[in-house]
Amino acid sequence: MLYFIKFVYSFVLPPGIIIVFLALLSLWMLWKKLRGTAAFLITITLMLYLVSTPLVADPLMRTLENRYPQPSELSGDVLVVLGGGAVTGTPDVDGVGNMGGSAANRLLTAVRLHRESGLPILFSGGKVYADSGNEGDIARRQLIGLGVAPEDILIENRSLNTAQNAEYSVELMKEHDLSRAVLVTAGFQMARAVTEFKHAGMEVQPYPTAYESSSSAAAAWYPGKLAPSADAIGKVSTVLKEYLGSLAAAF
């Protein structure tokens, strides 16, 4: 019963309610014998519905996240962590400002790898928007709060995109005589990030984290896979952005 209620709710909240509205509008067009317009609306409705379901979003996300497995051993002299969004003006345990969900997962992975390996952490990310926090500055405070010694932290807080992440990180590494980066970022971003670091003149060891789709999801099926959600649309948008970004980075 609980899952049935969740399924029904998915068509009451956006984007489900929009899909229902478009479907009803399509039926009305058919009733009015406006077959051409109805066919167009039905196509749009079906496309919107498909990209808003986990049945489509999760396999698309896995095409990016499955490209690089997590290595069993680290081969580098620094952990380079790429930012992924921060919020300013929000309370934190020891200050103000917080990392976004994916960025927080990347930071947590880096701290755990630092404790295991003793490698320093280089965090890369700046203030992308006027109302977002400076990722590098927030990351420094949170890293120290998680027990990382200040002397083991390098911060690059100017970059606004992945290409600048790579460019400025490589510059900072050279300033500190570091040459072998273990790249820690979200699995969906890793392919593009590796390409950008190659453009910046450095080969990296990929260490993907912050996964959005379960690797075992391919074998699991339940009615919720057909329920539309904003999260699924977000995943599809992320995948398309990464493929377009990779295409641009290739030239």
From TrEMBL:
Q: Which GO terms describe its biological process?
A: Gram-negative-bacterium-type cell wall biogenesis; peptidoglycan metabolic process
Membrane-crossing segments per the record: 7-31, 37-57
Going by the UniProt record, its keywords in alphabetical order are: Membrane, Transmembrane, Transmembrane helix
One GO cellular component term of this record is: plasma membrane
**In its keyword annotation, does this UniProt entry include Manganese?**
no
Q: Where is the DUF218 domain?
A: 77-245
What does the record list as coiled-coil region(s)?
none
Q: What is this protein called?
A: Membrane protein
Q: Tell me the organism.
A: Paenibacillus stellifer
Query: Upper lineage ranks?
Result: Bacteria, Bacillati, Bacillota, Bacilli, Bacillales
